[in-house]
Design goal:
By secondary structure, the protein is α+β, with helices and mostly antiparallel strands. It is built from two helices and three strands.
């Protein structure tokens, strides 16, 4: 049940494009050796090879937003404000 909220998809960033697989694989290996990215892969496009990299997303701390509550007795004041708006706009007050 806990994994239900997590996303399984990854967003890959294109790092470079190459004409040959050997050049793309050499670049991929250099990125792996430098430990810049968590995962690096080579994808084949029609006539070129694309090197893609993925890093895990940063975990952001969730901040609770305060809810706007109207205390008891404020409802009448809010209704009066709406009635005043209707008068200014030209609506007839019932």
């Amino acid at each position: 049940m806990e994994n239900k909220l997590e996303k399984n998809t990854k967003t890959w960033k294109t790092v470079g494009t190459f004409k040959t697989y050997a050049a793309a694989d050499l670049y991929r290996k250099s990125l792996v050796m430098m430990d810049k990215h968590k995962l690096v892969k080579v994808k084949r496009n029609s006539e070129e090879y694309i090197v893609k990299a993925w890093d895990p997303p940063e975990i952001k701390e969730k901040v609770k937003k305060p809810k706007k509550h109207y205390p008891k007795g404020k409802n009448n004041k809010r209704r009066q404000k709406n009635d005043n708006k209707k008068i200014r706009v030209g609506y007839e007050q019932e």
